[in-house]
């Protein structure tokens, strides 16, 4: 009996060892398979002849519908020129800003284009084409409040309107200790609420804000030149690992930069050349430090 038990125990031990080895081998095989997986992100686009790009269409002057109800804007036209440079057709899918990166992650789109700032958190999941826009955040305030906010730090406790609670501007507002409200009815609603005192400021990219003020056309609003935060680099986003597609887009972008087309588009839609890094000496970090 003793020998039989020992034999059974030995067999069980060997079985467990074999199972452990098999599991380990499977994991190693899976890892090797992942590491050696062929990147067809560009070749698939090239073969199909279509680059599918997600954008909101509600973030002027980056992406918006013009008076003819046609999609346009700085990044929209930039992507169209990239497609022309690469010899593929560009098809846009419009969706809410908060749905763009999830759509990229699940393969619904090839590229997300909506003034996405490159952050360490986003880089864990996505890759970015070379930067095409450098800027920083600012605020639209009432003209009568000019001088009230001597720096971005003075936004602490202010009533702040936002376009999205998932944007970097929302992150900064939270970090600085602002009282935030998200709007889904468009920028004009936020600006009217600033004028009537329901909000103290609207946070966003300074170049975008300047165009917002100009188009709204009310002297009671201004962009606060003393409020500078979140120095940013914006780029087109692709899914992490889609290196082939990222590099092709970066190569085409480099050509457009050399030809001066990116600067021209920036001047046309943003009112300034945003292709060069900004002076960060007075810019507060995203963490409000």
UniProtKB/TrEMBL annotation:
Domain (Solute-binding protein family 3/N-terminal): give its ranges: 50-273
Would the keyword Membrane turn up in this protein's UniProt record? no
Biased composition (Polar residues) is annotated at: 273-283
Q: Which InterPro entries match?
A: SBP_3_CS, Solute-binding_3/MltF_N
Q: Name one Pfam family in it.
A: SBP_bac_3
Which GO CC annotations does the UniProt entry carry?
A: cell envelope
Q: Where in the cell is it found?
A: Cell envelope
SUPFAM superfamilies for the chain: Periplasmic binding protein-like II (SSF53850)
| Keyword terms | Signal
Which protein, by its recorded name, is this? Transporter substrate-binding domain-containing protein
Native organism: Marinilactibacillus psychrotolerans
């Amino acid at each position: 009996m003793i020998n039989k038990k020992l034999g059974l125990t030995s067999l069980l031990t060997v079985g467990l060892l074999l199972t452990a080895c098999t599991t380990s081998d499977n994991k190693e095989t899976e890892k090797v398979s992942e590491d050696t997986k062929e990147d067809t992100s560009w070749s698939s686009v090239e073969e199909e002849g279509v680059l599918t790009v997600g954008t909101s269409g509600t973030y002027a002057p980056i992406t918006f519908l013009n008076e003819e109800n046609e999609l346009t804007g700085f990044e929209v036209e930039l992507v169209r020129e990239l497609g022309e440079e690469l010899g593929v057709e560009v098809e846009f899918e419009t969706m809410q800003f908060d749905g763009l990166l999830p759509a990229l992650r699940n393969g619904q789109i090839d590229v997300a284009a909506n003034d996405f700032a490159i952050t360490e958190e986003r880089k864990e999941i996505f890759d970015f084409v070379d930067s095409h826009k450098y800027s920083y955040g600012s605020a639209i305030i009432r003209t009568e409040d000019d001088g009230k906010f001597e720096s971005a730090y003075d936004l602490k406790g202010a009533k702040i309107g936002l376009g999205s609670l998932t944007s970097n501007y929302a992150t900064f507002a939270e970090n600085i200790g602002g009282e935030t409200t998200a709007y889904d009815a468009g920028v004009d609603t936020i600006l009217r609420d600033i004028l009537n005192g329901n909000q103290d400021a609207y946070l966003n990219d300074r170049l975008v804000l300047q165009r917002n003020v100009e188009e709204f056309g009310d002297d009671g609003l201004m962009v606060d030149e003393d409020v500078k935060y979140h120095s940013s680099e914006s780029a087109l986003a692709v899914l992490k690992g889609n290196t082939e597609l990222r590099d092709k887009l970066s190569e085409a972008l480099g050509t457009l930069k050399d030809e001066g087309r990116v600067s021209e588009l920036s001047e046309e839609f943003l009112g300034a050349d945003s292709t060069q890094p900004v002076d960060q000496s007075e810019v507060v970090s995203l963490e409000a430090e």
